[in-house]
């Protein structure tokens, strides 16, 4: 699976295009519709995955959905394994930054797309509407139960991995 990350909008939101066998998924189409379409290229869009509904993550969702006529995977949705075309991933509910935040875990590639749940050396804000400290605490504990090292693709900034964050996330709750 080829993972392309493009920064979109004034908040430089990470929009991801996952490509496999000329098919793709779009994660968090926040802004700059043309930039997203150019990155998709000739690949067939099978679906759009939305980590959470803050404007910088869904700003051009309607436009991308209308252009490609594909389904949108967003909260509310059942947790667990989902298959779309050649893509298999788990949907995991991680409220805290926002009450509708879900992550997409591609176990085969040890890749998790987490929106604004966690970042390298940080966690998502909890002071915005839908944010909640206790939910964030529970979500981090849920994430830390994963034993394998997972590459984490956040909604902003650079990538990180679970082993690195396992050593750093605990400081937010001491």
Describe this structure in a few short sentences.
The protein contains five helices and 13 strands.
Keywords for this structure?
single chain; 174 residues; alpha+beta; six-stranded mixed sheet; five-stranded mixed sheet; 13 strands; globular
Give the overall average pLDDT: 95
**Poorly predicted sequence stretches spanning 5 or more consecutive residues:** none
**Beta-strand percentage range:** 25-35%
> What level of helicity do the residues show?
10-25%
Q: Give helix and strand order, one letter per element, not per position.
A: EEEHEHHEEEEEEEHEEH
Q: With helices defined by DSSP (H or I, 4 residues minimum), what is the helix count?
A: 5
The end-to-end distance, rounded to whole angstroms, is 38 Å
Rg, rounded, reads 15 Å
Give the overall shape, derived from the CA principal axes: globular
Structural class by sheet pairing and helices: alpha+beta
What profile does the largest beta sheet have?
6 strands, mixed
* Strand ordering within the main sheet: 6-7-8-9-12-13
Please count the beta strands (DSSP E, at least 2 residues each). 13
